[in-house]
């Protein structure tokens, strides 16, 4: 793993967003959770975990009484480990540079949905749309279905509608019979998005976050 675990000192020096909605989510600077993944450990402050507004991480902050949270049994595959690692990086730093890795974006979208990290999820959706093509449009809308990614779903449907004559003959469009009716319903509803989506796809990524994607070997 190329990324070194973050120290408690680093987590204390982070700038945190205050959650003004409830005192139950206010934690002292020194309160933190140590996430254990195999032989690696990552210390993230509870303030930072709650600032991301994730029900998963808020629940850990409120209910997990031990300092360490062992994720080894929960994270089974390399994809799961790498994606969770990147989520922790995002929470600790507020940024990541993953838009150049299409496969990582797909995995990270799935993980962001699973762990309820909405801001990261939407960022993944936006970047994935800049990779949409005739060949992978159906794959992306199916990913949107499974990840409850409405932004990706809506704009993928508009793209499919705009290029339906080419896409209808692709293997991916003909194979997913269980999703075909849903796809057809969505593209019928996407008429108003055709022009705006066409313009969207012609623009370079506008999200200004800069991240460093750390590989896990």
Detailed description of the structure:
It is a single chain. With 217 residues, this protein is mostly helical. It has a domain at 133-191: Serine Threonine Protein Phosphatase 5, Tetratricopeptide repeat. 53% of the residues lie in helices and 7% in strands. The protein is built from 12 helices and 3 strands; from the N terminus they run H-E-E-H-H-E-H-H-H-H-H-H-H-H-H. It has helices spanning 8-12, 46-51, 55-63, 78-93, 102-114, 118-129, 137-147, 150-162, 164-167, 171-174, 177-189, 194-201, and strands at residues 32-37, 40-45, 68-70. The chain has a 3-stranded mixed beta sheet. A hairpin with a 2-residue loop joins strand 1 and strand 2. Helix 7 packs antiparallel against helix 8 (150-162). The protein is elongated. The protein starts with 7 loop residues before the first helix and ends in a 16-residue tail after the last helix. Residues 1-25 and 206-217 have low confidence and may be disordered.
Compile the SSE list and pairings.
Blueprint: H1 8-12, E1 32-37, E2 40-45, H2 46-51, H3 55-63, E3 68-70, H4 78-93, H5 102-114, H6 118-129, H7 137-147, H8 150-162, H9 164-167, H10 171-174, H11 177-189, H12 194-201
Parallel strand pairs: 1-3
Antiparallel strand pairs: 1-2
Protein name: BTB and MATH domain-containing protein 43-like
Domain BTB: 36-130
Organism: Temnothorax curvispinosus
If you compute it from the alpha carbons, what radius of gyration comes out, rounded to the nearest whole angstrom?
19 Å
Query: How much of the sequence is in beta strands?
Result: 5-15%
Biggest pleated sheet: 3 strands, mixed
Helix/strand order, N-terminal first: HEEHHEHHHHHHHHH
CATH architecture grouping of the domain at 133-191: Alpha Horseshoe
pLDDT averaged over residues: 77
The CATH topology of the domain at 133-191:
Serine Threonine Protein Phosphatase 5, Tetratricopeptide repeat
**Quaternary structure of the protein:** single chain
Could you say which structural class the secondary elements and strand pairing correspond to? mainly alpha
Helical run tally:
12
Uncertain segments are 1-25, 206-217
* CATH top level label of the domain at 133-191: Mainly Alpha
Total beta strands: 3
Q: Could you tell me how far the N terminus lies from the C terminus, measured between alpha carbons in angstroms?
A: 6 Å
Shape: elongated
The side-by-side strand order for the widest beta sheet comes to: 2-1-3
Work out the helicity level. 40-55%
């Amino acid at each position: 793993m190329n990324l070194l675990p973050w120290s408690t000192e680093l987590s204390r020096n982070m700038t945190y967003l205050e959650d003004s909605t409830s005192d139950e989510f206010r934690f002292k600077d020194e309160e933190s959770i140590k996430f254990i993944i195999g032989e690696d450990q990552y210390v993230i402050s509870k303030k930072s975990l709650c600032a991301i507004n994730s029900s998963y991480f808020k629940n850990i902050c409120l209910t997990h009484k031990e300092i360490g949270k062992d994720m080894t049994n929960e994270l089974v595959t390399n994809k799961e480990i790498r994606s969770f690692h990147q989520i922790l990086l995002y929470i600790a730093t507020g940024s990541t540079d993953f838009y150049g890795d299409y496969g990582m974006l797909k995995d990270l979208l799935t993980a962001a949905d699973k762990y309820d990290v909405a801001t990261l999820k939407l960022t993944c959706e936006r970047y994935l749309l800049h990779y949409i093509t005739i060949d992978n449009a159906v794959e992306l809308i199916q990913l949107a279905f499974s990840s409850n990614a409405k932004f990706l779903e809506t704009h993928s449907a508009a793209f499919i509608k705009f290029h339906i004559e080419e896409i209808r003959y692709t293997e991916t469009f003909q194979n997913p019979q269980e999703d075909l009716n849903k796809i057809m319903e969505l593209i019928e509803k996407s008429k108003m998005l055709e022009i705006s989506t066409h313009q969207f796809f012609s623009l370079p990524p506008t999200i200004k976050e800069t991240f460093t994607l750390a590989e896990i070997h």
